[in-house]
Specification:
The protein is α+β, with helices and mostly antiparallel strands. It has one domain (2-153): Gcn5-related N-acetyltransferase (GNAT) (Aminopeptidase, 3-Layer(aba) Sandwich), CATH 3.40.630.30. It contains five helices and six strands; from the N terminus they run αββαβαβαββα. It has helices at residues 15-25, 55-61, 84-101, 115-124, 149-153; strands spanning 32-38, 41-50, 68-74, 105-108, 127-133, 141-148. The protein starts with 14 loop residues before the first helix and ends with a helix.
Length: 157
């Protein structure tokens, strides 16, 4: 897991992530959390949120329109690199996130050094928009990517 949180300061992980999850579970944060399961076995997590519900992040990405964001990880090493991520993302956006938030745009912002995540997001249909900075991250330069609902629904993916 540590490898996938490469943009989180070492001294903060995992306590800050756990605290964020607890706030969301309690309804104190509007982020929706989901456990990813494969054949009934938990293998990771996906979260979704409206970008505008997080003003500091919204200012960093500066996309200028309503959007949702997602973050995810597959925590089982033997399942990474087998196409689960892109298929999961497409199904999650189509069946859960786009209907839930009523917006037509999803963005995701991996750190630029996370080449495996960027490849998985490209396979899911995301395309590069711009680089942006998250000044408090260990790796401040991020790679903003987007996918519209129309692109997903058009069957291109």
């Amino acid at each position: 897991m540590r490898r996938w949180y490469d943009d989180v300061p070492t001294q903060a992980y995992p306590d800050d992530s756990i605290a964020d999850d607890v706030r969301a579970i309690r309804g104190e944060d509007p982020t929706d959390l989901y456990v990813i399961q494969l054949d009934g076995r938990p293998i990771g997590e996906i979260q979704s949120y409206r970008i505008d519900d997080h003003p500091e992040y919204a200012a960093m990405v500066a996309i200028g329109r309503a959007a949702l964001g997602i973050d995810l990880f597959i925590g089982e090493p033997e399942l990474i690199g087998h196409g689960h991520g892109p298929a999961l993302i497409r199904a999650f956006l189509r069946e859960v996130a786009f209907p839930r938030y009523g917006v037509d745009l999803c963005v995701i912002g991996p750190s630029r050094s996370n080449a495996a995540a960027i490849r998985a997001y490209e396979k899911a249909g995301f395309r590069f928009v711009k680089n942006y900075l998250e000044p408090d991250s260990r790796e401040p330069e991020h790679y903003l990517m987007e996918l519209t609902r129309a692109e997903l629904d058009a069957g291109k993916l």
